[in-house]
Amino acid sequence: MCGIIGVIDKQRELMDGSAIRDALSIMDERGSGEGAGYAAYGVYPDYADLYAIHVFYNNLVEPKAQVEDLLETWGMIEYDEEIPTYPENKITKIHTPWRYFFRPKTRLMQRSKTPDDEIVKHIVMEVNKSVNGALIFSSGKNIGVFKASGWPEEVADFYRVENYEGYLWLAHNRYPTNTPGWWGGAHPFNLLNWSVVHNGEITSYGTNRRYIESFGYDCTMYTDTEVVAYLMDLLVRRHGLSQELAVRALAPPFWEEIERMPEKPKNLDTALRLTYGSAMMNGPFAIAVASPDSLVGFSDRIKLRPLVIGEHDNRLFISSEEAAIRTIDSAISKIFMPKAGHPIVGRTYV
Amino acid sequence: MIIGSRPTKFQVRIDNNLCMLCGRCADNCSYGVFRVDDNIIHINSRFCVACHRCISQCPRDAITIIERPCDYRSHPVWTAQVKENIFKQAESGKILLGGMGNAAEYPILFDHLVLDACQVTNPSIDPLREPMELRTYIGKKPKQIEYRQTPEGDIDLVTELAPNLKVETPIMIGHMSYGAISLNAHISMAKAVTEIGTFIGTGEGGLHEALYPYQNNMIVQVASGRFGVDVDYLERGAAIEIKIGQGAKPGIGGHLPGEKVCADVSCTRMIPEGSDAISPAPHHDIYSIEDLKQLVMSLKEATEWKKPVFVKIAAVHNVAAIAAGIARSGADAVVVDGFRGGTGATPSVFRDHVGIPIEAAVAAVDTKLRKQGIRNEVSIIASGGIRQSADIAKTICLGADTVYIGTAALVAMGCRVCGNCYRGLCPWGIATQRQDLVARLNPDEASNNVKNLIDAWTLELAELMGAAGINSIESLRGNRDRLRGYMLDQAMMDVLDVKAIGA
Question: Could you give the ipTM of this predicted complex?
Answer without folding.
Answer: 0.90
